[in-house]
């Protein structure tokens, strides 16, 4: 009797096919992407920018202290509110409705929330705080909910049957994950500081507002000073963020910028009940007029925006993977020496600390408006994160005493063993890449954010709502596809989802 052949669809073959499929899609996206360099002399502009970074002017920008205080105040208040409501949603994480609500609000970028809130609350503290708090609540809910699901159930089962649900939660479940909650909370505060600074690009008085002004006017020494101050704020977080000081920081943040609603309640009601309603329905039109309005919007904005967002996101995903493969040896103990690893770690820290939005803005100044600045920005930032996580994972590998060195060690000993984890990290970050891709349109890149920003400028908020809904559905679709692939391939990114490596859960 002829022995049965081994099934072809093994996990390894599925992993290789998935990797090849992603690479092929990314390569096709690169070929379709607009990679034009519109600036006539990017080298000269880069030289001017370099001179500004070598001689920063810390005293020319007025209201620098106020901008820094606003950045901190928005971030602290937004993170605190998000952690509170995210915690309550995490307690009910088994509810499908709660999961769907959390996924929906986190799929909308902080800048898009800011654009909507500007129409109701104006350039106020409330706009800045809620623009951070709303999407971050969805992120906190997801991460806290997963921490609770992954916690050891044994202590809870060991309690007497008469123990109340509240007591069981606070005494047998919460203590197991409390340290992870605190670690992730500090990472999310770092993200909130970046988000708070970026909100300056839509007019809020944070560091990003003055940074954008300085770089657009070509005053690079002032812009460099602002960027260095931002870096100092992030890099020193571990020293000034102390648990005992958190209540004082929150009190100071609220005292400096109280998140009060000073707008008109009628404006809020009109915005929700009138401005967000599709124009044909406001004009007493029927289904025919509504379908014609949607078809026009699909042809002119929805389809072009979705297509460009997907193309740019896939191209950035491919380049992210390539950069991660090239950069992770910079921090891996399996390569180089202590000096080279320290230098490599410094490079990766700067790249992953600088927000993608800032990087895209700098590249737009140098290269002009095309997809190239967005692709480079997303790949450099996310590639540094994935390289860092992959380097951390490589610390767990144990090589033979006679293992080869140099390129042979990389190609034959390390790369085959870290590749599944690197793919898992990329799939975890795919949703974030697509989310950031959409928002880069605010800078002028023709993704969905470009049309959202244009509709806000034209006060066509019905179009804004539909375009934002498109970004939500796109991000949810990418997230679902990513989770399906990870489950099908049985990919678990080692240390990548621990609290100490929180960027994988961003």
TrEMBL record:
It is found in: Cell membrane. It comes from the Bacteria. Its main location: membrane. SUPFAM superfamilies: MetI-like. The chain crosses the membrane at residues 74-94, 115-138, 191-211, 223-241, 248-272, 306-330, 432-452, 464-482. InterPro entries: MetI-like_sf (IPR035906). Signal peptide: none annotated. The keyword Transmembrane applies. Gene3D superfamilies: MetI-like (1.10.3720.10). The keyword Membrane applies. GO terms for cellular component: plasma membrane. It is a multi-pass membrane protein. Keywords: Cell membrane, Membrane, Transmembrane, Transmembrane helix, Transport. PANTHER family: ABC TRANSPORT SYSTEM PERMEASE PROTEIN P69, PHOSPHONATES TRANSPORT SYSTEM PERMEASE PROTEIN. This is ABC transporter permease.
